[in-house]
């Protein structure tokens, strides 16, 4: 597992609507209709995070979930971050994976 | 519903181990054994938050959940924040409520 290059990251982000680079991580702010939807999203993501053994840093306030993905082991962005981001998008809009 | 006074808040915090004042809110950092325990705690809290119609601001990184409670309607700390904090403590160590 090694960090992706800037070029690789930019290429991956093209397929990840709303995701952007934030230093050694990638971020997205998800907005839902209410708290139940937000926490339900987090739960669905949680199972994928466990399966990937890769976990998000995230903040929730009512209907908003701000996510940051980074790979501590490499200090950068790896394919694990991209995979988890894609699974989040799949949950929101089932087409990715 | 009105904000509690400083005295009232101090008094309530005496019964809430690990909770402290943070401006117009109260905060606590919960540490668990792993991610599953952390997200399970958040889920249990979520049902109480919905029941109280009062929701936390919280951040999760793996096994840590940092919580901040405040009441936006009054711009201060109200009995709702205290009730939600007590329910969180009850989840951790069933005795409060």
TrEMBL record, chains A, B:
<protein>
    <recommendedName>
        <fullName>Putative pterin-4-alpha-carbinolamine dehydratase</fullName>
        <ecNumber>4.2.1.96</ecNumber>
    </recommendedName>
</protein>
<dbReference type="InterPro" id="IPR001533">
    <property type="entry name" value="Pterin_deHydtase"/>
</dbReference>
<keyword id="KW-0456">Lyase</keyword>
<comment type="similarity">
    <text>Belongs to the pterin-4-alpha-carbinolamine dehydratase family.</text>
</comment>
<dbReference type="Pfam" id="PF01329">
    <property type="entry name" value="Pterin_4a"/>
</dbReference>
<dbReference type="InterPro" id="IPR036428">
    <property type="entry name" value="PCD_sf"/>
</dbReference>
